[in-house]
Amino acid sequence: MIFWTLREAALQVQALELAPGSAAATSEHVLLLLPVLRLLQSQHKEIARRMETVLEEMEQQEQESEHRDVTILRSMPGAGRVVAATMLAEASQALAERDYRALRSYTGVAPVTWQSGKRKVVGMRRSCNPRLRNAVYHWSMVSIQHDERSREHYAALRKKGHSHSRALRGVADRLLAVLTAMLRTGSNYDPTLRSAASRQ
Fold first, then answer.
1. 78: Cβ contacts below 8 Å, ≥ 6 apart
2. Distance (Å, rounded) from C-alpha 82 to C-alpha 48?
3. Residues pairing with 119 in the sheet
4. Is residue 54 part of a domain?
5. DSSP state letters, 48-69
6. Interval 41-55: pLDDT, tens
7. Neighbours of 197 (CB within 10 A)
8. Predicted confidence (pLDDT) per residue in 169-193, tens digit
9. Do residues 73 and 79 touch, judged by C-beta distance below 8 A?
10. Radius of gyration of the chain (CA)
11. In a domain, 197, yes or no
12. Eight-state DSSP code of residue 80
């Protein structure tokens, strides 16, 4: 009720008076920005198309060899085109070596401990690859929206009192552990395996 009263009062306030020509100048400025926005949109679509083409070519090349890193990575929940491309470009050596600890450090998922005397503080790792951190953040965000196991893990971390960002890092940590295990075994992500195991 209070919200509606405040809203009505705000709507009845007299509009600010603009200087002569302000509306026309703003309109002209917007018209000048439209071609730039259209160009950016077309470039965004073209880059997305090229990224998808490169990833598909890499998957086809993998079918001829024993490595299936791209296929396995793209089978993970939440790992879309941008996440897969960023992981493959920025953490290729750690992926090739199946190095879980390196992946945790590069992406900023592994916490840092500061200790001095009796004082011990555990915090977020700041010295990491910012592109990988951003990719893993979005990967975990999308994962909790589409994967039941990730959603449950996020909810459990939040229930323990962790912040949203800390819980997302926990989800990302789990995703990296699962990805590393899948790369070692050469298997794609299969959510039904956990469901079947939990029913037994």
1. 138, 139, 140, 141, 142, 143, 144, 145, 146, 147, 150, 175
2. 8
3. 116
4. no
5. HHHHHHHHHHHHHHHHHSS--H
6. 999 999 999 999 988
7. 8
8. 999 999 999 999 999 888 888 877 7
9. yes
10. 24
11. no
12. -
Among 19-28, 100-109, 147-156, 167-176, name the one with the lowest average pLDDT: 19-28
Contact 143, 150 (CB under 8 A): yes
Among the listed residues 167, 66, 171, 195, the one whose alpha carbon sits nearest the alpha carbon of residue 179 = 171
91: domain range?
68-190
Tally of domains within the chain: 1
Cut 0.85: pTM above it = no
Q: How far apart are CA 115 and CA 97, in angstroms?
A: 31
Does residue 47 lie in a domain region? no
- Does a structural domain hold residue 156? yes
